[in-house]
Design goal:
The protein is an alpha/beta fold and 417 residues long. It is built from 13 helices and 16 strands. The two termini are 40 Å apart. The structure holds nicotinamide-adenine-dinucleotide (NAD).
């Protein structure tokens, strides 16, 4: 089989991560083009690709160059996805699109319709589906070991510093400039509810708010930036000086050349970038806790709790024969765990999980690797996905949940197209 040709539009943190994995899978993928206005980022991808790689500083010139790959990976920021994806579909590409597919459900629907009309495949980067943990969950469900699935309970603990990094100081802090939390972060979880129940949602309700990361919670005398000298620095878990120590690797996602930067350069970055700001004095509006309750089309009931103040995901799936319980990570070693409890005799059986190296956030517990490793099968051959927007049902659930939250918990009918 010849290699699958891929082009990368948006060579930021995600785009470079996918490029690195593709390049490591010797001979199965060929990177033919890299597109990004920041020259050092395209240079990074071009170095991983062969000598024939084409480099573009903007999306327009890339799309004018004709079709340069089988699959286009779109890893630009949330608000650019719809425009880049529609241009890519019209230019003849199948797409691996970073989530969310678009900033509104109407635009997701439009994208789905366009892809179907043109007979093109759009896969979303739902990396959790490709982790050994969720793969094992799906295998147990598909094998029928739970009997008929009746109830799903899921939770996502973002972890306080991660919340501050991405959703208070960072790219996804404001729903006007990106998308609401339940879409930006929890579209993974909404997708999992649909994927594991085998159904789209029928109705959904939701509650949630921004509670902690607001001006009124600021410690007395806290300045606008941690680098201005804060009297509460000693006990503040969000002190941005942690980027010089235990949170240093997080800078790689937002600061060019962070890996080589010395302390002085990092301090300079903290004095001028959003990541040095006091978490109680930012322009954030996305929630730090939210609950969602859904009734699926097939009768399964599902709930999801998102909170900034826990770490990792937990999951319970209750069926007529057995219950599955687990989480990632759960134990002190940070490893995921999964158990099956048989209703018939009360026996509890651990489900073995393959080990993944601990790449944490960057690697999504093996999901980034699993996604890229699956790309060729996803886009060609007998197991290729259907034309259209794969994962649309989860986006519908998430967008309707946000509307319910804004309306004070009013029940929303999903899938009213
Ligand atoms: N699947 C996941 O689990 C996951 C995790 C984190 C982020 N994301 C999503 O991935 C996307 C990218 O996130 P990121 O952290 O890599 O962001 P990033 O800001 O590091 O990368 C975006 C890149 O797009 C480039 N860009 C901007 N305009 C462009 C244009 N017109 N043409 C080409 N390139 C352009 C920027 O220069 C930047 O390098 C976001 O939509 C985000 O929500 C997904």
């Amino acid at each position: 089989m010849p290699p699958l040709d891929i082009a990368i539009l948006g060579c930021g943190s995600r785009g470079r991560g996918y490029a690195k994995i593709a390049a490591s899978l010797g001979g199965r993928y060929r990177i033919t083009a890299a597109v990004d206005p920041v020259e050092t980022r395209t240079a990074f991808v071009a170095d991983l690709a062969g000598p024939d790689v084409r480099v573009f500083a903007d999306a327009d010139s890339f799309f004018h160059a004709g079709k340069l790959a089988d699959v286009l990976i779109i890893a630009t920021q949330d608000q650019d996805h719809f425009g880049h994806a529609t241009a890519a579909l019209c230019a003849g590409y199948d797409i691996l699109l970073e989530k969310p597919a678009a900033e509104s459900i109407e635009r997701c629907r439009e994208l789905d319709g366009l892809a179907r009309t043109l007979g093109r495949r759009v896969a979303l980067c739902f990396v959790l589906r490709y982790t050994p943990f969720y793969r094992a969950v799906k295998d147990v469900v598909d094998a029928g070991s739970l009997g008929r699935v009746v109830t799903i309970r899921a939770s996502e603990g973002v972890e306080p510093f991660h919340q501050a990094h991405s959703f208070v100081r960072g790219h996804w802090r404001n729903s006007e400039t990106s998308t609401p939390m339940i879409v930006a972060k929890c579209s993974h979880d909404a997708d999992l509810l649909c994927w594991l129940s085998g159904s789209a949602a029928k109705t959904v309700t939701s509650h949630g708010a921004l509670d902690w990361f607001t001006g009124e919670r600021a410690p007395d005398g806290a300045p606008a930036r941690c680098t201005d000298g804060c009297p509460a620095a000693g006990e503040c878990i969000y002190d941005s000086h942690r980027y010089l120590g235990d949170r240093r690797r997080w800078l790689g996602m937002v600061m060019d050349h962070a890996e080589e930067a010395d302390d002085e350069r990092i301090l300079e970055f903290l004095r001028s970038s959003p990541w040095g700001r006091c978490v109680y004095r930012c322009d954030n509006d996305v929630v730090d806790h939210q609950v969602v309750a859904a009734e699926m089309e097939n009768g399964v009931t599902a709930t999801l709790t998102m909170t900034a103040f826990d770490c990792g995901r937990t999951l319970e799936i209750h069926g007529t024969k057995a219950s599955l319980r687990g989480g990632t990570p759960l134990n002190e070693a940070g490893a995921p765990e999964l158990w099956l409890r048989h209703h018939h005799d009360g026996r509890v059986e651990p489900i073995p999980l393959p080990e993944v190296d601990a790449q944490g956030y960057a690697g999504h517990g093996g999901g980034d690797f699993g996604l890229v490793d699956s790309l060729d099968r996803m886009f060609r051959g007998p197991d290729a996905i259907e034309p259209g927007l794969d994962g649309f049902a989860g986006h519908e659930l998430a967008f309707e949940a946000e509307l319910s939250r804004i309306e004070g918990g009013e029940a929303r009918r999903v899938n009213r197209a």
